[in-house]
Amino acid sequence: TGQNICHQVKIAATRTDFVVVSASETGVYGHPGLVLLKDFHGRSALVMLSQPTTAHAAVLLLAGSVLFMTDIAASTRNDDNGISDANREDIRRMAGDVAQIFQFLNAGKGRHQVYDRLATFTDTIGPRLAGSKSMDNAIDYMHEALKADGLANVHGEDAQVPNWVRGQESATMLEPRNHNLAILGLGTSVGTSAEGISAEVLVVRSFDELHNRSAEARGKIIVFNQPFISYGISVEYRALGASEASKVGGLAALIRSVTPFSINSPHTGVQDYQDGVVKVPAACITVEDAEMMSRMAARGTRIVVNLKMEAKNNGLVTSQNTVAEIKGSKYPDEVVLVSGHLDSWDVGQGAMDDGGGAFISWQALSTIRQLGLQPKRTMRVVLWTGEEYGGYGSQKYYQDHQNESKMLNIAMESDIGTFRPLGLSFTGSPKAKAIITEIMEYLKPLNASRVVDNGGETDTNWWAKKGVPLGSLENQNDKYFYFHHSNGDTMSVQNPDTMDQCATLWSVVAYCLANMEEMLPR
Question: Which pLDDT band, with edges at 50, 70 and 90, does 47 fall under?
């Protein structure tokens, strides 16, 4: 009829193929549950909401038809999941704000903003080993960027971190043929003399095999060709290989890189010398070279390698965690903390580990500020230093702030990739998990609403002893360890659309928790 029949329907996000909306109680043709939607192509869809009072429905349209509808009232009204009516209503009232976040990051001015910011940063600064000049430059860069973004209370907090310098390094097979081995020395490893170490190689597949063959090990370079089972299991060889080799008289350790996939790419990481054990040099080699030497050894071939490493440990130096905030409008002393670590290894660009996590955490606050939203409690971003050495920066932060634990609503860290988001890993009480589950209903349009256990990461696990809820990003990161700690960790790994989706999840969860009337129950 040409009349404006679409009453009180707020278009919250648009792009050429979908529309996200939130609807009030007044609907189409006077029916409070009926909503008319249109996309950019003029295609329409009528959607019947399951409850008339669904001021909090979010609908995702794809090619003119409903792909998914989030109707919190419908999804929870028959499900007593432990959440109070007051908390449920508190979450529902934020539907309009959530829709703005979706629109801003996926179709508005904020689209690809997080990717572009990260690309500029990593292209400018490069890798950022804690304690290095590059890391100092990264901290200075972020201070200026956070201030320019209009965030409050931008400052650094000191922490002592190791100052380890890689220097030049090489490994050359001398027998049975001349072959240059691709290596990366391990963090905190000692170096060799200028001439290096030339010795016969003993190849083993496990610590048990090494100790069973300890009589053969003295005076040799130990090569660990351990299979990749999982990062948590296989990383023990990187961490402890040098000390285990030293215990049986080995002169050095060359350890198969901790990765399920390789294109002759070594992966670095920190190693851990045990007290009372002679320190010997340690480096990772490629999967291909580890398997080649294993095949040679199985045929009884004598293998001789020369290892040269200039690595030096220069003690502890001062670095900083980087902090910025949006001050809470009602409960400014209560804090929702989002974080990622700013340091990386000294190879690649540190774009994935953990540039992505650090920058979606900045983006969460930036999005809320740019939208002009006013959360009730303070949102704080912390970009950690010294994570790659085991959490030096976050441990110092915990020591300095542990008396504030009762005011910390949640500590969130993204440090396992920013690929396609799946949901949130969470540690907290059953009642807190019920609230998180309710909030995650908003992420169903991204198919990222699942809640799984174990929300702690290296930099947030300190708070578990105080009972603080913990959250981490659950994402489709099955290829994460292809690039982890290697020269392959560059912006080419990152995808601008999936980074937007991760930032959407991170922003929605952080904002809702900052804007609820009550803190998460312990």
Answer: low
Q: How far is CA 152 from CA 97, 144, 380, in A?
A: 21, 12, 9
Residue 65: φ, ψ to 5°:
-125, 155
Query: CA-to-CA distance for 62 and 163, rounded, in angstroms?
Result: 52
Residues 426, 71: Cα–Cα separation, whole Å: 23
- End-to-end C-alpha distance for the chain, whole angstroms: 56
Per-residue b or e along 347-356, where b marks 16 or more CB atoms closer than 10 Å to that residue's CB: bbbbbbbbbb
Task: For 96, list phi and psi in degrees, rounded to 5.
Answer: -65, -40
Helices (H) and strands (E) in the chain, counts: 14, 22
State the Cα–Cα distance between residues 456 and 463, nearest whole angstrom.
Answer: 9
Q: What are phi and psi of 77, to 5 degrees?
A: -65, -25
Which tens digit of pLDDT belongs to each residue from 345-378? 999 999 999 999 999 999 999 999 999 999 999 9
Quote the pLDDT of residue 187. 98
Contact by Cβ (8 Å): 341, 355: no
Distance of alpha carbon 167 from alpha carbon 158, whole angstroms: 26
pTM: 0.88
Measured between alpha carbons, how far is residue 454 from residues 220, 444, 461, 472, 473 in Å? 41, 21, 10, 8, 11
Say whether 157 is catalytic.
no
Name 301's Cβ contacts closer than 8 Å, sequence gap at least 6.
Answer: 176
**SS3 annotation, 346-386:** CCCCCHHHHHHHHHHHHHHHHHHHHHCCCCCEEEEEEEECC
513: pLDDT strictly greater than 60: yes
Choose among 488, 2, 15: nearest CA to 261.
488
Please give the torsion angle defined by the CA atoms of residues 7, 9, 15 and 17, in that order, rounded to the nearest 10 degrees: -80
Q: Which of 473, 435, 430 is nearest to 455 (CA)?
A: 473
For 455-466, the pLDDT digits (tens) are: 999 999 999 999
Quote the tokens at residue 114. 């997080």
Given the residues 169, 387, 413, 441, select the one marked as catalytic: 387
Q: What share of the chain is helix, strand, coil (3-state, %, to 5)?
A: 35, 30, 35
In whole angstroms, give the CA distance from residue 172 to residue 496: 40
